[in-house]
Amino acid sequence: QGQLVESGGGSVQAGGSLKISCAASGIALRQCGMGWFRRAPGKGREEVSSIASDGSIYYADSVKGRFTISRDNAKNTLYLQMNSLKTEDTAVYYCAACSYWGQGTQVTIQS
What we know:
Largest sheet: 7 strands, mixed
Distance between the termini: 41 Å
Strand content: over 45%
Structural class: mainly beta
């Protein structure tokens, strides 16, 4: 049974940075497409960034140039480095891989 556990969320001032992580167990991330999604208060789920199984990377327009997705196959962990954070980035961030979802980590950006 696979499991994804996010960590690293928190509260920062606008303009700041955060790096969130998604540790996988029972799943080999290198074999799957994987990504980060978010759900802001009162809004639907949004795909933020993803790495396809062929290695191609996607970023939502709203985060291009500010967020960087990466993967450490040795640690079986997915990361999202978030810079120049804006209040509109406030959301619960979820990772997904191999049809599994994490429980989410709250990211709050203060003005």
